[in-house]
Amino acid sequence: MLSEVTRTRNIGISAHIDSGKTTLTERILFYTNRIHRIHEVRGKDDAGATMDFMELERERGITIASAATHCEWEGNHINIIDTPGHVDFTIEVERSLRVLDGAVLVLCGVAGVQSQSMTVDRQMRRYRVPRLAFINKLDRSGANPQKVTDQLCEKLKHNAVLMQIPIGAEADFEGVIDLIEMKACYFDGPNGEELRVVDIPEPLIHEAEAAREHMLDVVSMFSDDLMEAILEDHVTDDLIHDAVRAGTLAQELTPVFLGSAYKNKGVQPLLDAVNAYLPSPVDVENTGIDLSNEEAPIALNSDPNKPLVALAFKLEDGRYGQLTYLRVYQGTLAKASSIVNSRTKKRHRVGRLGRMHADQMEEISEASAGDIVALFGIDCASGDSFTDESVQIAMTSMHVPAPVISLFVKPSDKQAEDNLSKALGRFVREDPTFHAGVDEESGQTLIAGMGELHLDVYIERMKREYGVVVETGAPQVAYRETISQRTEFNTTHKKQTGGSGQFGRVAGHLEPMSEGDFEFVSRIRGGAIPTEYLPSVEKGMQSVMGKGSLIGFPITGVRVVVDDGQSHSVDSSDMAFQAAGRKAFREAYRRSKPIALEPVMKLEVEGPNEFQGALLKTVMQRRGTIIGTAEEDGFCRVESEVPLSEMFGYATDLRSMTQGKAEFTMEFSRYVAVPAEIQRGLVSEFGAKLSVEEED
Amino acid sequence: MYRKFLNARSPLRLLEAGLHGGLGPGNLGVVVAGRGVGKTSFLVGVALDELLRSGTVLHVSMEETVAHVRAYYDTIFEDLASTTHLEDEARVHREIDRLRRIRVYPRQALTPDKLRDAIKMEREAGSVPALVVVEGLDLETLQAEELQDMKDLAEELAAEIWFSYSSLDERIEGVPATVQRFDPLVSVVVSLEPQGDVVALRALKDHDNPDLSALHVSLDPRTLLLVRA
Q1: What values do phi and psi take at A485, rounded to 5?
Q2: CATH number of the CATH domain containing A526
Q3: Residues A43 and A170 in one domain
Q4: What percent of chain A has a predicted confidence (pLDDT) above 70?
Q5: Do A278 and A241 reside in the same domain of the chain?
Q6: Domain range for residue A19?
Q7: Do B97 and A625 touch (CB under 8 A)?
């Protein structure tokens, strides 16, 4: 079975928006017989390229969602994970980079290495993804593969080497010369499907020999055997292949291939290279986290006989209903077996299992370590892990942070209202960090998530996928309140209005607690408060924590200790003690010097070194704390912590300060006390809001 | 314990006493030890002491990531806070985060020019370090003029700059030749040597003072904290 795993390649095709990534993918699927007709990207024939199936993508000519498609080449299984080419969707990009083992970096033969190529390349470097380069569009005027290869070396610091040279240039581009076999390849037939391998044309022999010599020079650094063979003049093709593979897997060499996907040239040799040089799942180390051991990292083994561990990396609602794309990291996933979601602990039965080819499907009966498959009808979120229950392993942390930002959305009409709830229902299912609900006070729909961009993506998807146009309110930061000192209370609730009255007294103290929202501790002795009423006190206290009296936000981090009280044999009741609890908490809270807390984000911003000053400035201007700066290969990455309330409009500011050459990632870090002057502002804002409400 | 008591009782006060006033602004110091003996812990200990007294620190390293260096500080700070029952730990932690800047140069040589640029960049971004910790500058290949440049920089900033030097041997007899050749430029050289359960600190050079008395400070290899010997 292990031999099956070694014949699998999970690859990404990553590129700048207009480098022809989708066309290349389309051609790959054509040559591997997954599709039988070639479409063009920008809808010359309405069908659109196969990988590009979301409406949004069709319109823009770019791919946002990462679909996985399966094909076979020379006996190998190749799963192509379509990574987003747009910089803003970094969560999607990073999630797809996680599931792939190798990648093809597509570069435009004319434009060369663009800022976007730098971004995706750095992301791949961060995830240690071995890659090949494919220089596309060699039929265009101004295309220059040597120049682009030099840029790979200079701008991206790759050790890039041409494995081919072109036959003819620009409009006369006819094919490529393979520098290992020293043969010329032409791509005949109406769609370039007939490969013709012949001797190198006479005028190019000299150039090819020089290029091969250079290639051998570079490649022999990765193999002593090859180096020796060169000295003794008995170089074999296999020795070269092994050395290129070794260098590529170590991410110290980038073999460069040439072609024009649009003109159907150079794609088949690229597929050969994917098979020969990119890693199989067993060549890559994968780690999960051990839930039975405080989320410690644990190595996974691409062995089909080990316990199952799989990651749901993408959900889709399509013509087959809800599809869940899974990568199997370990073990085997079989039809009719039962699997458990590590987050929800829910058990699911594996119904249909499929290999997806964009929007067509092939049913299979099992998938094993290294495979990428689609499951049907499983209710889960993307990022969830599945096991066969014999192990407690997940691929991502189980911790789901609370949302830090919210905004009101208002559908434009009645029709939109129905679709809106459908859309929200689906998004909430897909993404545990996205929340939606109705605000009790205003009756409006409120959505909440992990950042401005996070919510923007969903607003955009509402429009594209569900046709819902919404008006949005200003984004609201999810502040919190907490107490800053221990505060005693001794409160009596007493009401006597004829008939049976209400009576309850509670005494104790509130104290700050660094972890958790609320804790209720009873130190009642001798039945001062009857045991059955203690839950009433707790309930009463908790009921007022949803809205603090300082700035009107939820209260967190409070431990309540109740150590005394009093009850009445007739007048005490559940209701009376709930009321006493509410009153005690409210009164004590006011005296506890409450403070406001704000969400602070971990911000990483990265760009060319010459903008380092500007990058630091963007952080300083936003009440940020600079943790540190890493400088590498002409780029710098500034790591910092910045309050979320200061981050609105950051993307635009950053773009204008750095000519669009920098990008950032941001995630929630923790709640931190706001500075005194900001707290004063929040308090007076809340006061103004209250007085308006009173006037109403 | 409140921070001011913690500062007063810091073993670094003993170190300063042993060194007749410490390294001092405008001066260069070197810590010498075998690999893995605790140079980083010593330097982070010195830096934390500065941070807890509201001084600014720049930590320059050839580590892979900023997070790696920060983790050192966080671990040592948390140990310090828990062993001393520090009051208001979270607030103090945030304040030292604000006062400290980390710079890493992964997979490349750290040169004096880069160091100068780094300090310049930090100054422009509003942080003038009172203490600079430099790990990974290759003292073997460093020219005396380059170190003179560092000394000028230290004087200009009125900052202390600490460097680390890895010796091949865990036993350190005296100032290593590599450091000795910079003689007048380096004011203080201390060594770290494992002695039983602790790592002992010894002054090898203390300004122009011929009396290299005992420092009474050691490094606890378990907590990585500087402690009274």
Answers
A1: -150, 160
A2: 3.30.230.10
A3: yes
A4: 90
A5: yes
A6: 2-283
A7: yes
- Residue whose structure tokens are 């060499």: A253
Q: Is residue B62, in this structure, part of any structural domain at all?
A: yes
Lowest-confidence region among A87-96, A204-213, A602-611: A87-96
Domain contains B217:
no
In this complex, the residue of B65, B90, B101 whose CB is nearest that of residue A626 is: B101
Q: Smallest CA–CA separation between B210 and chain A, in Å? A: 39
Asked whether residue A172 falls in the same domain as residue A186, the answer is: yes
Paired strand residues for B209: B206
CATH number of residue A213's parent domain: 3.40.50.300
B104:A630 CB<8 A: yes
Return the CATH number at B157: 3.40.50.300
pLDDT, position A88: 44
Distance from first CA to last CA of chain A, Å, rounded? 73
Do A61 and A159 sit in the same domain of this protein?
yes
Tell me how close the Cα of A584 comes to any Cα of chain B, in angstroms.
Answer: 27
Q: How many domains does chain A have?
A: 5
The verdict on A610 touching B (C-beta cutoff 8 Å) is: no
Residue A687 lies in a domain: no
Nearest to B106 among A616, A627, A632 (CB): A632
Burial class of residue A128, CB neighbours in 10 A (0-12, 13-18, 19+): exposed
Residues B63-85: b if buried by 16+ CB within 10 A, e if exposed: bebbbebbebbeebbeebbeebe
Establish if A692 belongs to a structural domain: no
Q: For residue B216, is it within any domain?
A: no
Name the A residues in 623-682 with CB < 8 Å from any B CB. 625-632, 637, 639, 641, 672-673
Same-domain pairing of A207 and A227: yes
Shared domain check, A607 and A564: no
For residue A478, give the amino acid letter.
A
- A310, A217: one domain: no
Cβ contacts of A632 on chain B, cutoff 8 Å: 105-108
Distance from CA of B190 to the nearest CA of A (A): 27
d(CA B105, CA B109) in angstroms, rounded, equals 8
Q: What is the DSSP string of A39-70?
A: --TT-TTSS--TT--SHHHHHHTS--S--EEE
Q: How much is the pLDDT for B195? A: 84
Instruction: Give CA separation, B185 vs A202, B26, B205, in Å.
Output: 67, 11, 12
- Backbone angles phi and psi of A492, in degrees to 5: -115, 135
Which residues are CB-neighbours of B17 under 8 A, at least 6 positions away?
none
Contact A620 B90 (CB under 8 A): no
* Within-domain flag for B210: no
So what's the pLDDT on residue A41? 47
pLDDT in tens, A129-149: 999 999 999 999 999 999 999
**CB A654, CB A614: distance < 8 Å:** no
CA distance B157 to chain A (A): 20
* Closest CA relative to residue A131, chosen from A147, A150, A112, A152: A152
Give residue B87's domain range. 3-7+24-195
- Secondary structure class of B95 (helix, strand, coil): helix
**What is the distance between the alpha carbons of residues B166 and B179, in angstroms, rounded to a whole number?**
11
How many domains does chain B fold into? Answer: 1
Mean pLDDT on A49-71: 50
